[in-house]
Structure formats: structure tokens, C-alpha cells
Amino acid sequence: MKIWQLLVLVLFILIAGCAPMPQQLQQAEVERRQAYVAAHPTLDEITKNRILQGKIAIGMTSEEIAEEKEAKYAALMRAKGLIKFEGKWMTPDQKMAIQKERQRQREERERYVAEQRAKGLIKYKGKSITKEEKEKQILDKAISYIETTKYIYRGASETYLRISIIYSFSYENPEFIGWEITPDPDNPAATLVTMKFSTTGVSYLILTASSSQVNNSIKEKMKKAVPLLRITWRINDLTGLTITPYNFYAEDALTIYKDVINGLLKIAK
Question: What is the pLDDT, as a whole number, of residue 16?
């Protein structure tokens, strides 16, 4: 036998002689757990006992300990015939009673809605009202926006109502005949509000203006508004009120208003 082999053999024998027997290992583990519990007096009694019994390993994370406790508790609850439902332990009969009550409430709500519809009522802003009442509320709100909201241009401001009325005088004998409100086909969150005027023709001053003053294509579009001029604005108040032109006549109304302001500012200079 070579010298290095002899040294390895001696080393192996020494290590084997020093290694504790399984019973010694078990006793060392018990003592280690006892020492850990003694060093952590703030542990609750259940945790202490589980560590001493070897049910919780020293070095387990708090999450692992919580999961182990939860599993133990769940097993205890199931042994009592309980089931977990929406985070709570209860008997199967209790669960069934909760589900039946919810079903009853759901059917009650559905029955109420059906009764309201049978009466011609619909739900709007938490109240049961007729379709006509809903439309009137929406129209009144939209009219209020047109009457009070101002368009600002170069330091000047005017309400969309007055801008529309001013524009109507681009036609002969304009007469306001009413409002119209419709959903915006391009934007479910928006509403279209139309001011309607009866007219007998386009203003003579516009018709006789040179093409450099009023484009001929604009004159032709204005003629199409005879005998009914419809100025339509788009209102969106979902995330903040905005009012924008929807049709040519609303756009032209803003254009004329801005032309007037530009002219006044030019004269003021």
C-alpha cells in the first residue's frame, strides 16, 4: 500500500470515529430546537410546541410557517365538517343559505326592473323615469351648456348660443324654431345638439360678395340650408366639458365669429 493511500485510510477512520451515531444526531437536533425556543421567548405557545415537536423546521420563512399553520387549521376545520367559502369557514348549510339569499335578491332586482319597464320606466341616474323624461333631462342639460359656455378667441369670448344666433343672420328672415338632440354616431360619450332656424334664403350681402370674400363653394353649401338651417354642436362632458362644431354650419358660425373679432381688433389698431 502506498503512503498516500495509507494516509487516506487513517483519515477516514478518524472521521468515522468522530462522527455521531444517529441517536446522537437526534439528541443534538432536540437540543438545537430547545436552544432556539429558549433564545426566542416571544414565540407563541403553539409555535414553540410545533418547533419542539419537529413540525416546524428552524430556518423556515414566515410565509412557509404561515402556510403550514393554514394547512393544519384547514385540516382541522374539514375534520369538523366545515368548508371554506369566500374566505370564511362555515357549514354546507350556511353556504347554501347565503347562495339562496343572493339568488332571491337577484330575482327581486330583475323583477323590479321588469315591472318598471312594463310601466314604461327606465333607470337613469339612480331613478326610474320615462324615456321622455330622460330625453328632456339630457336636452335641458345640453341647452344649458350651449347657453352658458363661452368660446374664447383672441381675448374675446361669446356663448355658443349667441354665436349661433349671430350666424343665423347670414340668412334672410331667420327664425329660431327649436332644439334637437341626438346621440353622436361616432362617439357614444358625446351628444349632438342642433339649433334649428327657418330661413327664406341666404343673405343678399353674402350672395353678392366676391369670390375672394366668400368662396363660391361656401355659398352653395349655405343655399342648402334653405329653408331649414341646422347648426349642430358636439357636446362631450365625460371627462371635462368640450363643445366642438359637428356640421359645416357650426364650423362656419365659428369662422364668421372669428372674422368679426379679427376685424374689430384690426380697427382698434
Answer: 43
86: phi then psi, degrees, rounded to nearest 5: 55, 45
CA atoms of 225 and 204, how far apart (whole Å): 15
Structural domains in the chain (count): 3
Residues 196 and 236 in one domain: yes
Q: Tell me the whole-structure pTM to 2 decimals.
A: 0.54
Q: Which position has the grid cell 347657453?
A: 147
- Shared domain for 60 and 169, answered yes or no, is no
**Per-residue model confidence (pLDDT) at position 209:** 87
CB 144 within 8 A of CB 234: no
Cell of 188: 357614444
* Residue 3 within any structural domain of the chain: no
Nine cell digits for residue 86: 369566500
- pLDDT-derived band at 125, boundaries 50, 70, 90: low
- Res 61: pLDDT: 62
> What's the whole-number mean pLDDT along residues 31-45?
75
Question: Do 235 and 175 belong together in one domain?
Answer: yes
Q: SS3 sequence, 130-196?
A: EHHHHHHHHHHHHHHHHHHCEEEECCEEEEHHHHHHHHHCCEECCEEEEEEEEECCCCCCEEEEEEE
